[in-house]
Design brief:
- The complex is a heterodimer.
- Chain A has one domain: MetI-like (MetI-like fold, Orthogonal Bundle).
- Chain A is about 70% helix and about 0% strand.
- Chain A is globular, with a radius of gyration of 28 Å.
- The termini of chain A are far apart.
- Chain B has 2 domains: about 160 residues, D-Maltodextrin-Binding Protein, domain 2 (3-Layer(aba) Sandwich); about 220 residues, D-Maltodextrin-Binding Protein, domain 2 (3-Layer(aba) Sandwich).
- In chain B, about 50% of the residues lie in helices and about 15% in strands.
- Chain B contains 19 helices and 13 strands.
- In chain B, strand 6 and strand 7 form a beta hairpin.
- The longest helix of chain B is centred in the first third of the chain and has 31 residues.
- Classes of the chains: A mainly alpha, B alpha/beta.
- The interface between A and B is medium-sized, with 33 and 35 residues.
- Chain B: This is ABC transporter substrate-binding protein.
- Chain B: Keywords: Periplasm, Signal, Transport.
Chain lengths: ~325, ~450
């Protein structure tokens, strides 16, 4: 049997004394500000490397004729030509219009559905937790998965969606294509996006609804206010800041929507559902027009940044009321 | 000072240790053998190439690794790789349209000296494949690839349906001629209309499957099969890049109208964004009477237990009023200029060019472009689709192979899909806009574009 002898700390001189390590000694004497900078420096370096530097580089490229598929051509400074080409291109305006329609319709629908679901889920009923989980499932899926399985669901010959419509309307299931018809495809992407993201709006609204103190409703009941009156005078006004936040998040997300729409329709039929993000991806990584696509990305960035700024100011005003 | 010395000695030891480990790693790699990565699309012939590659490994000791990407992202993925001078691929089987950009951008190793040294002659390969897959500039003796996978658009049909007496007689009663594989597009449309919505074995079937995909190259690779035969050309052969009146000629517009009519009258519902795989699915599930697709898929279809064997027949892309052509597919194999294993990659090409290897390539599901294989007397009998393949390779035409091909392709995708599937404007307007788009692209590239 081997006996391991443990050193007796108490017998080692100086062990119990607080000893300052070399590092601690170095830190000692630094100001709080310096220490704070030391802590945030890695994050700032990372941010500069992966966000700020590419952004500056992109701004530089937007003034050039760079085309990566023809990198043997001399790189020329073209001034504002790329911006002029974009802003005078009818197709770009059409894509922006398509994107705006998609954003407005899908966000509006998501707010209505999400708020409605939040009102339902806010009540206590049997199976409450189960139904909440079921409702939240779509937003937990990857957009690529959603795009692929909705493609199957909407397939005119084998997809159950057309059969469901046929059941209620009597229209033959294979006589229409939700993703292939010009009149239906824009509504299809709105529908699928709403299915996926209305639960997210619901969550935000639910937080808003649960933040309303019960005593306000109790006071309203004492005043014999009807349920409808309570909704219009208490529930809705007090959840408006939350709703506006949800609108902001969803509008920004939908403005840059790419994956799900690309899988569902590839921007088609024709260019009916070609959102500006799909155009940008095609220009940058399929046509390799780097200078042009950098300019387009800047225009989109400024548009979203400007719109979001105005919106946030409005949101703050609403909150202050 | 002592501390500095200590740091120096530690750093030196670290460097030595790393070098020693590196040496060990190198030795280990050498012991394990060399490795080459070959990049291509994920499809049936790629599986055949993996089988074929085992012989190369046996002979050379070089391990083969493969990077196969689905067709829909094949161009994006590998052009990105080449553009960024990546080292993923040592060998690449790149699409025929990439050859201009790959040569101009020096993505591929020029193979002339290697061919001379190894006595590989391009005269030994089918001429269309040499021009299509290897040469840049076209029709000049500058070679950037070895023709690897010959391919073209062809058609399959349900031979068993065509031969049924009741169907035969119904067709004859309606059109006054025997039901047989079509020789012209008018005949094809008649047959497609005849089958459209017909009930066969208790199941509703449809006339034809054609390419309509929007995102990558699908609808362009489909519509050109009709356009060429209606008089469409990419430019004036006497005045390069002069497209006005050629691309958008009245004949070309008629061809585009025909493709739309075929799409509207005779395809299955929902085929608004369909390419190779959707065609295979439609045919294998017994949904369509005729299918447009690449010859590369035909060995697999012939082996299919439900629709293959005696049930399937093949025919060449039908002729039109102004000619008889078909769309070239296929690829050449190239050595990537940034590869660290160029010599091994060239050794693979040398091995692949051998007649015996090319013969085996054809036998196991690839399509050889070597004349010794395809011109052999027994070649037409070697597969059910071999005669049609041989005929097709004699009438192929390819899309632009300019460095700006991707822009040209996406412009055509948009204009054609807008007209055919989204009902936007007329055929003439679609082609006029296409000329405008292409003119802009060529001007940006610094080409002189004559308007007339």
């Amino acid at each position: 049997m081997t006996t391991i002898l443990q050193p007796d700390h108490a017998t080692i001189p100086g062990v119990n004394k607080p000893v300052k390590s070399r590092a601690a000694r170095r830190v000692h004497g630094l100001s709080d500000r310096t220490i704070a900078w030391l802590f945030v420096a890695p994050t700032i370096a990372l941010l500069l490397a992966i966000n700020i530097f590419p952004l500056i580089w992109m701004i530089r490229l937007s003034f050039t004729n760079l085309n990566l598929s023809m990198s043997y051509l001399p790189l020329r400074f073209v001034g504002l030509d790329n911006f002029r080409d974009i802003l005078t291109d009818e197709d770009v305006w059409f894509r922006l219009q398509t994107t705006a329609q998609f954003v407005i319709c899908s966000v509006a629908l998501q707010v209505v559905v999400g708020f409605g679901l939040a009102l339902l889920i806010n009540r206590q009923f049997r199976g409450h937790s189960f139904w909440t989980t079921v409702i939240l499932l779509p937003m937990m899926l990857s957009p690529a998965v959603v795009g692929n399985f909705w493609t199957l669901l909407l397939q005119p010959q084998i997809g159950p969606f057309n059969y469901l419509i046929s059941l209620f309307t009597g229209v033959p299931p294979s006589s229409f294509s939700m993703t292939g018809q010009v009149s239906l495809a824009p509504w299809t992407i709105v529908l699928v996006d709403t299915w996926m993201w209305a639960p997210y709006v619901m969550l935000i609204c639910l937080a808003g609804l649960r933040s309303i103190p019960d005593y306000i409703y109790e006071a309203a009941e004492v005043d014999r206010a009807s349920a409808w009156r309570q909704f219009w005078s208490i529930t809705l006004p007090m959840t408006v800041p939350f709703l506006m936040l949800a609108v902001l998040f969803r509008a920004i997300e939908n403005f840059k929507m790419f994956d799900m729409v690309n899988l569902l329709t590839s921007g088609g039929p024709g260019s009916t559902t070609e959102l500006v993000s799909i155009s940008l991806k095609r220009a940058a990584f399929e046509k390799w027009r780097t200078g042009y696509s950098s300019a387009l990305a800047i225009i989109l960035f400024v548009t979203v940044f400007g719109a979001a700024n105005i919106y946030v100011k409005t949101l703050n005003k609403v909150k202050q009321r | 000072m002592r501390r500095m010395n200590w740091l120096r000695s530690t750093a030196a030891s670290a460097v030595l240790a790393v070098a020693a480990l590196g040496g060990l790693g190198g030795g280990e790699a050498a012991a394990q053998g060399k490795q080459l990565t070959l990049c291509w699309a994920a499809w049936d012939p790629a599986n055949a190439l993996v089988e074929l590659g085992k012989d190369f490994t046996k002979q050379s000791g070089i391990e083969m690794k493969y990077e196969f990407v689905p067709w829909t992202s094949y161009a994006d993925r590998f052009l990105n790789e080449l553009n960024s001078h990546g080292k993923l691929c040592d060998l690449i089987i790149g699409d025929s349209q990439w050859i201009g950009g790959a040569a101009e951008n020096k993505w591929y190793v020029k193979l002339n000296d290697f061919f001379d040294k190894e006595h590989i002659s391009m005269d030994d390969f089918v001429p269309a494949t040499v021009v299509g897959y290897s040469q840049w500039p076209k029709n000049t003796p500058n070679y950037w690839a070895l023709p690897a996978m010959a391919d073209a658009v062809g058609w399959t049909y349900r031979k068993d349906w065509f031969s049924r007496p009741e169907i035969q007689s119904a067709f004859k009663a309606k059109y006054g001629r025997d039901l047989a594989p079509p020789k012209t597009y008018d005949e094809l449309k008649q047959i497609a209309e005849f089958f459209q919505g017909r009930e066969i074995d208790g199941k509703k079937v449809y006339g034809a499957y054609i390419f309509t995909e929007r995102g990558s190259e699908g609808i362009t690779m489909g519509v050109t099969n009709v356009l060429y035969n209606y008089g469409f050309a990419y430019d004036n052969p006497k005045k390069p890049y002069q497209m006005q009146g050629i691309v958008n000629s009245a004949d070309a517009a008629k061809g585009l109208e025909f493709y739309k009519e075929l799409y509207k009258c005779c395809t299955a519902p929902g085929m608004t964004n369909a390419y190779m795989q959707e065609g295979l699915d439609a045919f294998k599930s017994g949904q369509v009477a005729m299918q447009m697709n690449w010859f590369a898929f035909f060995p697999g279809l012939y082996k299919d237990p439900n629709v293959g064997g005696d049930k399937i027949g093949f025919f060449v892309n039908p002729a039109g009023p102004k000619g008889h052509f078909t769309q070239l597919g296929g690829q050449g194999i190239s050595v990537v200029a940034t590869s660290d294993h160029k010599d091994d990659a060239l050794a693979y090409i040398k091995w692949f060019a051998q007649p015996a290897v090319q013969q085996k390539w054809w036998q196991i599901g690839g399509y050889s472009a070597l004349k010794a294989v395809v011109d052999a007397p027994d070649f037409p009998k070697s597969a059910a689709f071999a005669p049609q393949f041989l005929e097709s390779m004699g009438i192929v035409k390819d899309f632009w192979a300019e460095p700006s091909y991707a822009q040209l392709l996406l412009d055509m995708q948009k204009r054609v899909h807008d007209y055919v599937v989204a009902d936007k404007g007329t055929a003439q307007q679609a082609l006029d806009l296409l000329v405008k788009d292409w003119t802009k692209v060529f001007k940006e590239q610094g080409k002189e574009v004559a308007s007339q």
